[in-house]
């Protein structure tokens, strides 16, 4: 079964060549490099990975993502993050796709807090025109704006990162309800990375299994993807890479056909259509 990791953050050990921002959010020593990711994917039977720009370490400096994706096109897809308040960003996104082979962008609200913003809209249009994928990172307070954007760009393939950060607790049903209502937009896909980040228990994150299955039922497996949250030592310290994968391979009550879509086939269509 094809397995693609759609959510891996990478950190260069060479901080002179790729300097971090002031007060970066750091992984444990020796963790998070592209080489570490290669070891993790190969030891777990994962064939490909999406490299997601690490804004908490590099902000809008995408050089490590660009260089890594360009040098490893056979098994990676680069996903950058650009400043929606910078008028040059749309042109930069186009050039990244052409020069480095990047296949998507992680979209964030503008500096004033708006997702429904001219700068964000310009980036989404560039992505739509270029056949790129948008990963949108927002909380439920941006749902109405996200709905407007999805309606405006019906042909743009959009992935909802972490499903609005569903987590166990008193707000879970409200957040889940918003995620389920968004499923009516056929161009929106659900990234099911919230189990280890939102669980109150750790592996196998059973407190979020029912929520995950409801998301899968609403979107359909063909619009759902798995991602590891690599490096797990930083982002999911209670759940290892292998355990996170095992939740989707063994623990969730999915059919084999659904597993195939969620673990690899949906991601292949989104980020690796020619491989």
Can you summarize this structure?
The chain has 275 residues and is of the alpha/beta class. The chain has twelve helices and eight strands. It has an eight-stranded parallel beta sheet with strand order 1-2-3-4-5-6-7-8, sandwiched between helices.
Describe this structure in words.
By secondary structure, this protein is an alpha/beta fold. It has a single domain (4-271), classed as Alpha-Beta Barrel (TIM Barrel). The chain contains twelve helices and eight strands. It has an eight-stranded parallel beta sheet, with helices on both faces. Helix 4 (89-100) packs parallel to helix 5 and helix 7 runs parallel beside helix 9. The longest helix is centred in the C-terminal third of the chain and has 16 residues, at 256-271. It is globular, with a radius of gyration of 17 Å.
Primary descriptors:
275 residues, alpha/beta, TIM Barrel, 8-stranded parallel sheet, globular
What does the secondary structure layout of this molecule look like, with pairings?
Elements: E1 4-8, H1 34-43, E2 48-52, H2 55-58, H3 63-71, E3 76-80, H4 89-100, E4 104-107, H5 118-130, E5 133-136, H6 143-152, E6 157-160, H7 172-182, E7 188-191, H8 194-198, H9 209-219, E8 224-225, H10 232-235, H11 241-251, H12 256-271
Parallel strand pairs: 1-2, 2-3, 3-4, 4-5, 5-6, 6-7, 7-8
Helix pairs in contact: 4-5, 7-9
